[in-house]
Amino acid sequence: MIRIVLADDETLIRDAVARLLDLEDDLEVVAVAGSGPEALAAIRRERPDVAVLDLQMPGADGIEVAEALLAEQPACGIVIVTGHGRPGHLKKALGSGVRGFLPKSVPATVLADTIRQVAAGGRYVDQELAAEAIAAGDSPLTAREADVLELAADGAPVEEIAARAALAPGTVRNYLSSAVAKLGVTNRHEAVRLARAKGWV
């Protein structure tokens, strides 16, 4: 029996997926969670064979949960499911040790088969997302440029971004200018939109 912890902040989806997985003879959902911290606690308590994590959850996203767990429980396979799959997210997830990555649009049978593959030590990546990731290439942004761009996403002034990032305002302007130039756009708002579309922030 493959023991599973399932985490998704959308209750209806989480409960429906849990019921569908429990219909499989060889799968058992031993705990569910509605946030990143709840998922961490459930996985540490239950020590499942596979954790199925939503990419976007309050408290900590699926990749952050995976990064925290894989050092503690390297035998636990991590599968990320998402309704917002972007090439950058896929690359970041695989780089953190996630072994399965698929959109929420796949049938339940595909999720069940992915869980079995990951539990057996294999990997599964949705083919369409993989092709998009290859086509998109690597992010041209440095980690600090991506951080500053993310902080600029809600239209915050440079002084506020500088305070939140513990940087000087001039440094923030330099990071934003560099990001705009690297992405080939005309302003930081376009840079945020493009970087988000690629999953780079």
From TrEMBL:
Response regulatory domain location: 3-119
InterPro entries xrefs: CheY-like_superfamily, Sig_transdc_resp-reg_C-effctor, Sig_transdc_resp-reg_receiver, Tscrpt_reg_LuxR_C, WalR-like, WH-like_DNA-bd_sf
PROSITE patterns listed in its UniProt record: HTH_LUXR_2, RESPONSE_REGULATORY
Example of a GO MF term: DNA binding
GO biological process, one term: phosphorelay signal transduction system
Modified residues (4-aspartylphosphate): D54
UniProt cross-references to Gene3D superfamilies, sorted A to Z: 3.40.50.2300, Winged helix-like DNA-binding domain superfamily/Winged helix DNA-binding domain (1.10.10.10)
The HTH luxR-type domain, residue ranges: 134-199
Keyword Transport: no
Sorted UniProt keywords: DNA-binding, Phosphoprotein
Name the UniProt record assigns to this protein: Transcriptional regulatory protein DegU
Organism: Isoptericola dokdonensis DS-3
Taxonomy of the source species: Bacteria, Bacillati, Actinomycetota, Actinomycetes, Micrococcales
Gene: degU_5
